[in-house]
Amino acid sequence: RLLEQRQQQQQQQYKPSDFNVGIVRYEYDYPSNVIIDDKTRHATQNVTRVYWEHSGFDRPDIVPNAVKQVDQPPLSRDYVTMKNHHQGMYLATRALLQEWKERCQFDIATNRPGKGSQPTEGTQRVWMSSQMLYGGRHCNVQQVLPKDRFGTLTTLHLPNKNYRRVGKYRSRQFSDGTEVFEKPHASLLKAMELHLALKRAFSPPVSSSSSSSRSNSNQKPYRGCVRMVNEVDRVRDATKVLERRMKAYHAYVARGGILSESDY
Question: pLDDT for 213-229, tens place per residue?
Answer without folding.
Answer: 444 445 567 777 778 88
